Amino acid sequence: MGNTQIHQRPIGRRITPQRAQFRRLAESADIGTVTRAQLAVLAQSLTCTGLINGTESHLLVALINTVPAESFDRSGRPIVFKSNQQLAFEIGRSVGRVSRMLSSLFDAGLITMQDSGNYKRYPIRNGDGEITDGCGIDLRILIVRYAELDELVRQVRAQKKAADAALRRYRGALRNAHYALSAAARLSEDSLSRIGARIERVSNIVGIAGKASSRVLRRATALLEWLIERMMQLPRRSTEAQETQNMTCPYVENGMHKQITTRHPFDESNQERRSANAEQLSSPKAGSASKWAFEESLRRGRSKINQPRRLPQAMVALQDVIRAVPALKTYGFAPSSWADLARAVPLMCRFAGISEDARARAVEQMGEQQAAVAVAVTLEKYDRQEVSSPGGYLRAVTDRAGAGELHLARSVFGLAARNSMEVRH
To answer: One of this protein's Pfam families, by short name (predicted)?
Structure first.
C-alpha cells in the first residue's frame, strides 16, 4: 500500500499584502457618516464601473441589507455573520460560487473578512452585550471608501453620457455629409469623388462607431462638419484674408512670403502648381502643393535624401506652433508639451490622409519634434486648401530637410502672422 498523504486544511482565506492593507483601512472607518441606504444604492451602481459584475453586486447588496440599520450608527459594527450556505440560498447561487465572489469582493476592496479556525462566523461581545469584534464579513471599508467609489460612479456616468452625445453627433454628421455630397451640384464630378473618398476614409478610421472612443468621434465629427462647410461653399469661420496680396511677415528671420488662396478649393489645380512628388490616396491625378508655399520649390527630387542631415536654422516654441496652426484646435488637438504634439502626429496624419511611410520618413529624417511641426504645418495648409496632397507635401518637406534647405521656422512664423492678420481684419 502506498503512503497516504494528508493535506492540512488551511486556516482562513489567503492573505495578500493588498488584503492586509484593506483590513487596516477598514479599522479607520468613521462609523455613522454613511447610512445603510446610501451603501445599498452605491452597491447597485458599482456594476457600471466594471469593478464588479451583476451577481457580485447582488451579493454585496444582500450583505448590506443583512446588517441592521443601527449597526451603521456611531456605536455600531457593520459585520455580517451569515454562512456561505445561507448567503447562497438567499441569492440563488451555489456555495462555491458565493465563496469565490466573496474573494473577488475582498480583492476589490469592497469587503474585508476575518475567518476563525473552524470557519465559523460569530460576534465577540463585551460585558454589556455590545459587539466589539467578530469573525465574519466586515463592511466598514465601504464606509471609508464611500466618497471615492461614489465619485468613480459619477465619473463613469458622465463619461458614458459624453460618449453617447459624441456618438449621436458623429452619426448625424456622417449622415449630413452624405446628404451634402448628393446635393452639392456646383462642384465637379472629380471634386465630388475626392470629397466622397475623404468621407469614406474618415468612416473607415472610426470603424464601428459604437466601439470608438469619444475622443476619436469628436475629431471625426469636426472633420465631417468641416467637409460639409466646404461642400456648401460656406466662408471660413474667421474673416478671409485678402487674396494674392504680398505681405511681409514680422516674425520671419528674412525674406518675403506670399499668401495663396484658392477660390475653388475642390476644383482641379492647374499644372503650374502641381507637385512632382505629390501623393493622393483618393485620386491618382491629384496633387498640388503650392509652389508659392513657405518652403518654396518643394518639388525637389529624392536624390538628395542621402545627403548629410543639417540642423535647422531656427527653433520655434510650442506656443508659436499653436498660434500658427489653428487647425490643431479645429481637429480637437490641444497639446500642452512637445510630447503631446508628437503623440498626436499619427492621428493628424490619418485626418490629412498622410501615409505611414511618409510619416516614418519624416521622423527618421527630422526627428520627432521637427517632424511633428512639419505635420502640423501640413495639416494647416491642408485645412486652408493650399495643398490637395498632404502626403506629397510632407515628402517634399522631408526631402528638403535631407538636403539641408528646409526653413521650417519661416513657415511657422509666416502662418502665425497670416492668422493674426485674418483675426484683425
So the answer is: RP-C
